[in-house]
């Protein structure tokens, strides 16, 4: 039986500002990537989200980003590999403390936004972040864009990696995601998004915007929790996967 993880970025509220539908989304996903305070999140939000994830039996991962609250971590910054290393160690440590204090265990790390996209094509950055993850805990799983420098750097560091695909994003022929600034970056038709995911899992292929089939490995599927129809889509994709005979469970879990 084929297996896949469903992950969602969470804990991205900040102070009086609320973002996403974390409590509801946790009923459908198997892994939660929790913001660590740099691009979003705050101590109270981190603790609350960790507790909710544990209550729902959802695997917890750190979601480190660039120090850019105003830009939600989606604006590129010229950082060195050393700075990337230090940012990631710092942020993993912050979330790890909350996970540990609530009696849980951290399972993975997935970078956010611009940091994720920069390292996907920059091996030096990906390598520095993979080293940071390994040195904090070599048992952590590194999530990264399928076929990208993330996966190569993670394997070189000796980490277990999870190749990530996106349910609501379009792809280029080199395997990268279509930049958000382009009008065709997002898939707004839920049925089309579900079909793309099922094909990536079952056939190991995704059709690019240039109408070319690109080989792809789907260990974990990212679904976003801040859209208008996020909950309905989460339930729809979960139901579709189970109907297709695809087991939905967190990476690294066997039960």
User: How much helical structure, as a percent, in the residues?
Assistant: 25-40%
Biggest β-sheet description: 7 strands, parallel, barrel
Helix count equals 8
Low-confidence stretches: none
Distance between the termini: 13 Å
List SSEs in N-to-C order: EHEHEHEHHEHEHEEEHE
How many strands appear in the DSSP assignment?
A: 10
Describe it for me?
With 255 residues, the chain is of the alpha/beta class. The protein has helices at residues 22-25, 43-55, 81-101, 113-121, 123-136, 149-157, 190-203, 230-243; strands spanning 3-10, 31-35, 59-63, 106-109, 141-145, 160-166, 205-207, 213-215, 220-222, 247-248. A seven-stranded parallel β-barrel has the order 1-2-3-4-5-6-9, surrounded by five helices. A two-stranded antiparallel sheet has the order 7-8. Helix 1 links the parallel strand 1 and strand 2. The longest helix has 21 residues, at 81-101. It is globular and about 40 Å long. The mean pLDDT is 95.
Note the main attributes of this structure.
about 260 residues; about 40% helix; 7-stranded parallel beta barrel; two-stranded antiparallel ribbon; 8 helices; alpha/beta
């Amino acid at each position: 039986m084929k297996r896949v993880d469903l992950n969602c970025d969470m804990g991205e509220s900040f102070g009086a500002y609320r973002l996403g539908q974390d409590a509801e989304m946790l009923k459908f996903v198997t892994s939660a990537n929790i913001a660590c305070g740099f691009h979003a999140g705050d101590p109270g939000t981190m603790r609350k989200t960790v507790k909710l994830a544990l209550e729902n039996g959802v695997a917890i991962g750190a979601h480190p980003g660039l120090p850019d609250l105003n830009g939600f971590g989606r604006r590129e910054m010229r950082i060195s590999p050393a700075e990337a290393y230090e940012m990631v160690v710092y942020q993993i440590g912050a979330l790890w403390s909350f996970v540990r204090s609530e009696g849980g265990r951290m399972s993975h790390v997935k970078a956010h936004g611009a940091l994720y996209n920069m390292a996907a094509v920059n091996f030096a950055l990906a390598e520095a972040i993979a080293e940071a993850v390994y040195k904090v805990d070599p048992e952590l799983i590194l999530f990264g864009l399928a076929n990208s420098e993330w996966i190569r750097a993670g394997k070189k560091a000796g980490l277990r990696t999870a190749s990530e695909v996106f349910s609501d994003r379009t792809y280029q022929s080199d395997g990268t995601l279509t930049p958000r600034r382009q009008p065709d970056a997002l898939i707004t038709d839920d049925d089309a998004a579900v079909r793309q995911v099922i094909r990536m899992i079952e056939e190991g292929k995704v059709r690019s915007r240039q109408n070319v089939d690109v080989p792809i490995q789907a260990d974990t599927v990212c679904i976003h929790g801040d859209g208008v129809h996020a909950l309905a889509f989460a339930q729809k994709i979960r139901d579709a996967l189970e109907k297709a005979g695809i087991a939905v469970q967190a990476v690294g879990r066997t039960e």
